[in-house]
Amino acid sequence: MLYLTYLRLELSHRLRQALFIAAGLAVGVALVITVSAVAAGASKAQASVLHGLYGIGTDMTITRPYAPGDAGPGHEVHPGEHLDYLDTNQGLFSSSAVGSIAGLPGVRSAAGVLVLQQTWTPLHGHLARTPSNPYGLPLSIPVDGVDPAAAQLGPLSGARVSSGRGLTTADADSDVALVDSGYARTHHLHPGSVITLASHRVRVVGLVSQPPGTVPDILIPIRVAQALSHFADEITTVDVAVANTADLGPVTARIKARWPWADVTTQATLGSEINGSLGETAHLAQDLGRWLAIAVLAAAFLLAALLTVTAVTRRVREFGTLKALGWPTSRITAQVLSESAVIGIAGALAGTGLGCAAAAVISGVARNLTATVAAAPGHPEPKGFIARADARTGQHFYHPLAFPGTYNSLPVHFSAPVALSVVALAIGLGIAGGLLAGALGSWRAARLRPTAALAHAG
Amino acid sequence: MYELTGVTRTYRKGGKTVAALAGVDAVIADREWLAIQGPTGHGKTTLLQLLGGLDRPTSGTVLFDGKNLGEMTESQAARLRATSIGFIFQTFNLIPTLPAAVNVELALAPLRLDAAERRKRVAGALDAVGLTDRAGHLPAELSGGEQQRAGIARALVKEPAVLLADEPTGNLDEDTRDEIIGLLARLVRDRGLTLVMVTHDSTVAARAQRVGQMRNGRLLFGEAAAGAGGQQP
Known about the structure:
The structure holds 2 protein chains of 2 kinds.
Chain A: H1 2-13, H2 15-54, E1 60-65, E2 80-84, E3 90-91, E4 93-94, H3 96-102, E5 107-121, E6 139-146, H4 154-158, E7 160-164, E8 176-180, H5 181-186, E9 194-197, E10 200-209, E11 218-221, H6 222-229, E12 234-235, E13 237-242, H7 248-258, E14 263-266, H8 267-271, E15 274-275, H9 276-314, H10 316-324, H11 329-365, E16 368-373, E17 385-389, E18 396-400, E19 408-413, H12 420-446, H13 450-456
Parallel strand pairs in A: 6-11, 8-10
Antiparallel strand pairs in A: 1-3, 1-13, 1-14, 2-5, 4-12, 5-6, 5-13, 7-10, 8-11, 9-10, 15-16, 16-19, 17-18
Chain B: E1 2-13, E2 16-28, E3 33-37, H1 44-51, E4 59-64, E5 67-68, H2 74-84, E6 85-88, H3 100-106, H4 115-128, H5 144-156, E7 162-166, H6 174-191, E8 194-198, H7 202-205, E9 210-215, E10 218-220, H8 222-227
Parallel strand pairs in B: 3-8, 3-9, 6-7, 7-8
Antiparallel strand pairs in B: 1-2, 1-4, 4-5, 9-10
């Protein structure tokens, strides 16, 4: 076909320039794919961290900041084994708030959580010093009281049963527990094992795998937790799912209007607090990476346009001759557009390959990043230790105002997935770059007057 | 074939108005070979471009077979050039990236013929100019004479009614010039074509049936032409 022959031979003649333009477009396209992949990978990794802290399906949490004078045994330290709420940054509030919040417009569901810790405090002196507890400090493990009827929210939503069974609504008042699989492995626990919480025997019904960063080692029904800790009808957290993302703002406003003391935390709030190499990667991809990709693509477009217009200018006599032969302007502009489109397609395909390869290399090289999380709902930042002396015995107690795992670096598996939609977008951008250059060249060619073009021949 | 009445063409150049054609009246008959001579800058090429529908007169009329070229749209003029008018250029104007045969075939693209018909016509045109053996060569691989042969084949392949040649031998040596002019003369005669040729070369002009002289934008014939330094028709 004459049209294709002309196209092929013309591009072969200008191969070096065509490859140069295609290479520029390829770099821009590759950067778009790579940056998008890294950003998607960082978002995915952040989401996995947030799911561990937050619970899958939870859009916001409501807590109450602790205020001096608040009632409750929050600062008391007792010898022996007990299940305590001990948190200088949070307060307790009535579980009736759960029903009230669930009834607000825009709220799909709500569930209460009572965040506790099981503490072993020696009557005299210190606990036995061990490698994991070199100072013999009082031991504590985090225990969450959760609503078995609300498995789609909060801590239960991220817990995947790896052995035994999960909690059901029938367990609401039963002395049963789910244990984190890692904790169970360390302490040789399995479904059927019996543990003691606040000197009370509780049967393990299942082991669960939880997302990284998840705090509680033990999950028990909230009514049981309230009974064992003597915090009847009180909770520390309400986990909320909204009907639509657009409801986040209005629901937050309604909650604050009704409960002015409420501290409302959303995923966006927590997401900005993730630091470490994961945070750095996310910032790099989303800020520097995005602008770099845009700048390179814009430069590639500009270069393609300039080179194409220059090439058309050099072919003035050729186009003037074609007009003299009777070629309509539309045919000439189609020729120029086609040449540029081919270059754009070549650049887009090469860039796609390059971008996918770069994303694969990044996935392999940056396999493990760390997420440093400063806070989690119900598990605030550590504030140091409480030290008290028992006047009767002279015993000193050091009690950490932090739950293990609330402020640490979590390993996160990182990959840079390349989405088909991003590939399609990138290919489209490459072709658009070629067509834009072709359009400018075509416009230049269309404006040529045959007489001027032929006179240009000299 | 052509009827020109009071044709003028003016341009604005550097703030001044330049009259390339200052009132041309002429009739060019079918199958006539008209040579147009004259010094550079007196409007020869401008006249040729008007005859080919590449430009429009500022005033006056240029009729081609009764059709007013000045009133045609761009696409109508392109269509006319595609079917009825063949151009031959001084600098050959072959597309450097395409072999001779494809250069010739380009002239058939606007006619939307099927591939077999195009190939047949191209072969015929190349054969008529004696370039069959060099059909696959790029212009850079052809001599000046061969390139002009390819240019002539490209002009003839569409089976036009008229050939417009702008200094077709201007870039050729004497022997090649004679060869090309001889070829043109034969083809014009055998195919019954009208040929309007711009030339500086009096030897070439002498082969034409009629010679006009361009002087200051006017086309002069006969005694007026002779008085202006031209040949008698």
